[in-house]
Design a protein that fits this description.
This protein is α+β, with helices and mostly antiparallel strands. Helix content is 28%, strand content 41%. A six-stranded mixed β-sheet has the order 1-5-6-4-3-2.
């Protein structure tokens, strides 16, 4: 099932979110870009299993993509661990 993305602007960067079970989840690649973290997959490995998930999204070209998302707890963990 594909999730509907909602896009937020933070300074000059887009942050995409999806609703999962009524709660917001952030696209990890977007969070990493804002924090200047180069490898989202390595960031995901450091998170608790309940803080990270996968979802299918539709990109701007209409293709289905597998996307790593993080919940609010995961978002705070990524922010606090970044330099």
């Amino acid at each position: 099932m594909s999730e509907q993305l909602q896009t937020w602007n933070y300074e000059s960067s887009e942050i995409r979110t999806v609703q999962k079970e009524g709660k917001p989840w952030w696209v990890l690649a977007d969070v990493c870009k804002v924090l200047e973290l180069s490898t989202p997959s390595r960031v995901a490995e450091r998170l608790e299993k309940d803080e990270v998930s996968q979802t299918h999204t539709i990109d701007r070209m209409g293709r289905t993509q597998n996307t790593t998302i993080i919940n609010e707890s995961g978002l705070y963990a990524v922010i606090l661990r970044s330099d």
